[in-house]
Structure formats: C-alpha cells, structure tokens
Amino acid sequence: MNDFSQAFSLSLDLIFSLDARLAEIVLLSLRVSLSAVLIATLIGLPLGAALATLRFPGRRTVNAFLSSLMGLPPVVVGLVVYLLLSRSGPMGSLGLLFTPTAMIIAQSLLITPIIASLARQVSEDLWGEYRDQLTSLGCEPLRAVPTILWDGRYRLTTAVLAGFGRATAEVGAVMIVGGNIDHVTRVMTTTIALETSKGNLSLALALGMILITLSLTINVATFMIRDQVKGESL
Amino acid sequence: MTLPGSILPLKLIDLTYAVDGQKLVQNLTLEFTQGPKTLILGPNGAGKSLTLRMAHGLLKPTSGQVQWQQRHPQRHQAMVFQRPVMLRRSAAANIDYALGLKGLGKAEAAELRNEVLAKTGLSGIATRPARVLSIGEQQRLAIARAWALRPQVLFLDEPTASLDPKATRAIEDLIETIHAAGTKIIMSTHDMGQAKRLADEIIFLNQGVLSERTAASDFFTSPHSAEGRAFLEGELLL
Ligand SMILES: Nc1ncnc2c1ncn2[C@@H]1O[C@H](COP(=O)(O)OP(=O)(O)OP(=O)(O)O)[C@@H](O)[C@H]1O
Ligand SMILES: [Mg+2]
C-alpha cells in the first residue's frame, strides 16, 4: 500500500513537472493517433455517407462487413500490417516497420471502419429525412454526400471522437508494428504495459491518468454534442 | 393543347401502386392541363400522397405510366411536402442550395433568392437558421424555395396540415400568387374549406380509387359520386 501511494505521488510529480520522457511519449501518442484519425476521417466520413445514400447491389453485405470490422481485434490488425511491412512482405522495401508511420497505418486501418460505420448511421438518419426533398430538387445520391456531411457535421464529430478514443486506447496494433522502441515508437499504452511489468509503477500510473483524462474528455464532448444536437435540432 | 416548351399536359395512365399485393392506388388515369388549380381531395389514407409522389417521380409506380411532354420534365417541376424539410443552414442558404443544384451562378441565385424572400414576406428572417423558424415560416420558406426554381408545375402535399388558420391563410395566398404567375398547381388536401377556397377543379380519391373529377363549382353543390357526396355530408355534420 505504501508502495502504491509512493508511486502515486511520484506519478503526480511526473505530470506536474512536465517530465521530458513523459511528454515525449504523450506527444508521440497524440501524433500517431491524430494522424490516424485524420486519415480515417477523410476516408470514413465520405464512405459512410455514400453507403447511406447510394443504392447498389450488395449494399447490405458491404454494410454488414463494415460493421463487423468495427470489432476487429487490434492485435490482428497489427499482425496483418506487420506481415505487409516486414522485410519479406509486399511492402517491406519501404522500411516502415517499427516506425511511427507503421503505427499510423495500423491505427488508420483499425478505426476507418469505426468512423465509416458510425458515419453511415448518422447519414442514414439524415438521408431518410432529406431524400424526398433533395430528390425533388434534382440532387443525385452522390451529389447528396457533401450535403449530408455538411448538414450532419455536429453529429459526425461524435463518430470522429469515437475513432480517436479507440485509437488512443488500443495497445495490440501499435505494440506489434511499432515494437515499443524507447524514444522511437513508445506510446502511452505500450509504455504502460511495459513499465507495469517492470514494476515501474509511477510512469505507468502517470500515463494511465493522462489516458483516462483524455478518454473522459472525449466522452464528455460526445455527450455534449449529442445533447446540443437534440436540443437545437442541428 | 401543348404549349411550346411546356411539360404539360401531364398524363397518369393506368397508375397502380401496390405493397405486398395490396393495391394502395388503383388503375388511376388522369390528365392535368395548364390552367386550373387542381385539388386532390379525399379522406386520410385515400392515396393522395402516393399519387403526388408518383406524379413527381419520387415513387416508382408498380404499373402504369407517368407521361410528360418534354424530355427533362424534372427540371420544370417542384414539390412542397406536408412537413417542411429544412436543410441545416440559414433560410437564404436553403434557397441558394436549391438554385445551386440547378446550376445557377452565385450572383444570379442571390438575386432570385432575394426576390422570392421578399415576395413570401421572409426577407426579415433570411439569415436565421431555417430549423429555428416556426413551422408556418418553414412552410413559407419551403414554398419560396420551390418557387425560386420557376417551376411550370408545383405539387403541394397537404402543405397546411400542421398549421394554424393564420399561417394557413398566408400559404393559401401564396399559392394563389404562384398560380397567377403562371405555375400549374396540383395540391392535395383533406380540408373541405381549403378545397372550397382554392380549387378550380376537384379530383376526389377514396381508398386508392378515383371517385370523380369535377369542376369545383359543381362538386360542392352536386358531387357526382356517392363517395364525394358522403364526404361532403360528413363534413357538414362536423
Ligand atoms: N410504403 C407503404 N407500405 C404500406 N402501406 C403504405 C405505404 N405507403 C402508403 N401506404 C398506405 O397507403 C394508403 C395511402 O397512403 P397516402 O399517404 O397516399 O394517403 P393520403 O391520402 O395522403 O392520406 P393522408 O390524408 O393521411 O395524408 C395509406 O393507407 C397508407 O397507410
Ligand atoms: Mg398524405
């Protein structure tokens, strides 16, 4: 118990003294996850909206497939990206394995289906409301995609936040493709795993508190957006 | 009958709409010509909305045809729905959006938009988000948006069903104005008083079937069909 309280006060010291090592890890985490969110958003939002407005054979299958990808185990994504990027793999010559870029690729793959699926749900609601009117105005389903994205902008933010939350919290994928190399690919989750097993609880605890704060912030923001959308019919 | 450049007359030929084998609109044959304000009257569930949606091209009939006189009739018609559908932007931007889809440039669109906003009495609320407007204002905006497209034919599906008498009056006045400016009005209602105020001719539907088509002056004094008569009497009893 004494150990724990000591680790706890040490971890607070680390946070409030803006410890350089801690900061490096947090910043790399944010860089990797924000990059992945950016990529996944650019692909996922238009994809989700298009799946809501376009009618084509096999649409249900595509939607079901996309939804099932939402629950993809991060370690499996990590494994697949590892195989692609490893020296003997198809993209091995790029030399990306064990770099932050590899981690960005893995997290993008992991959260694009999440953002796309959630965006599709939001877009389907909006399209249900708009379809007759937009069709009447001569708006083709594909042309409706930017309209849906703009008019659903507040609600779609929650899809992006969900993707960000998932990216920052996952360990498996970045562990495998990043390799958890000190000063290179060590992010919050992988550091927590490593330092805990080494018994270095203060750093692990400090990172854990930051991670929880981040996750709570995301959830509160999501809640507030939902509330706002309901109240003002945005 | 056909004016040069006109998409009218509109012919509905043996139109049927069925769901799970149940015919909700049955063998409807009708012609709509330039001129009179046509009111489609009938009780709830008569098939008024389905008929308008098929005529406007929003719903594919199970069988039968919708015939217009031009190759791109869609560009020359517009529709106003029972519940106004407002995009999540300002009142003015709602109209601009519709004009943009038609390919109008910004300046031209702004001019046209300001004109219809003025004509519909909405200039003062042009910059407000459309979805915070009252339902009556939203419906006027929906009509302004449709009117801005300069349609030859305007479909209206019970446009005043959720409005109070004052707002209803404003919408009816607008419809008269749009008609006077040369747009063919095809509108549904189940409100007898409204039909009396607006209609030049009545199309009476009941359970998906055409009961009669009669000049408004005749319909309200001597309807031809038993269903029309019953509807009129039911209304008088209320
Ligand atoms: N997609 C559908 N599936 C099954 N039934 C439908 C469908 N669309 C409409 N109906 C039914 O068809 C009938 C006619 O509908 P419609 O909306 O055209 O009536 P309406 O004359 O416009 O009535 P109201 O005055 O209530 O608007 C109704 O009984 C309705 O329940
Ligand atoms: Mg109806």
TrEMBL record, chain A:
<keyword id="KW-0472">Membrane</keyword>
<dbReference type="InterPro" id="IPR000515">
    <property type="entry name" value="MetI-like"/>
</dbReference>
<feature type="transmembrane region" description="Helical">
    <location>
        <begin position="203"/>
        <end position="225"/>
    </location>
</feature>
<feature type="transmembrane region" description="Helical">
    <location>
        <begin position="64"/>
        <end position="85"/>
    </location>
</feature>
<dbReference type="InterPro" id="IPR049783">
    <property type="entry name" value="ABC_perm_TupB-like"/>
</dbReference>
<feature type="domain" description="ABC transmembrane type-1">
    <location>
        <begin position="26"/>
        <end position="222"/>
    </location>
</feature>
<keyword id="KW-0812">Transmembrane</keyword>
<protein>
    <submittedName>
        <fullName>ABC transporter permease</fullName>
    </submittedName>
</protein>
<dbReference type="InterPro" id="IPR035906">
    <property type="entry name" value="MetI-like_sf"/>
</dbReference>
<keyword id="KW-1133">Transmembrane helix</keyword>
<feature type="transmembrane region" description="Helical">
    <location>
        <begin position="33"/>
        <end position="52"/>
    </location>
</feature>
<feature type="transmembrane region" description="Helical">
    <location>
        <begin position="97"/>
        <end position="119"/>
    </location>
</feature>
UniProtKB/TrEMBL annotation, chain B:
<keyword id="KW-0067">ATP-binding</keyword>
<dbReference type="InterPro" id="IPR027417">
    <property type="entry name" value="P-loop_NTPase"/>
</dbReference>
<keyword id="KW-0547">Nucleotide-binding</keyword>
<dbReference type="InterPro" id="IPR050093">
    <property type="entry name" value="ABC_SmlMolc_Importer"/>
</dbReference>
<dbReference type="InterPro" id="IPR003593">
    <property type="entry name" value="AAA+_ATPase"/>
</dbReference>
<dbReference type="GO" id="GO:0005524">
    <property type="term" value="F:ATP binding"/>
</dbReference>
<dbReference type="Pfam" id="PF00005">
    <property type="entry name" value="ABC_tran"/>
</dbReference>
<feature type="domain" description="ABC transporter">
    <location>
        <begin position="10"/>
        <end position="232"/>
    </location>
</feature>
<protein>
    <submittedName>
        <fullName>ATP-binding cassette domain-containing protein</fullName>
    </submittedName>
</protein>
<keyword id="KW-0813">Transport</keyword>
<dbReference type="InterPro" id="IPR003439">
    <property type="entry name" value="ABC_transporter-like_ATP-bd"/>
</dbReference>
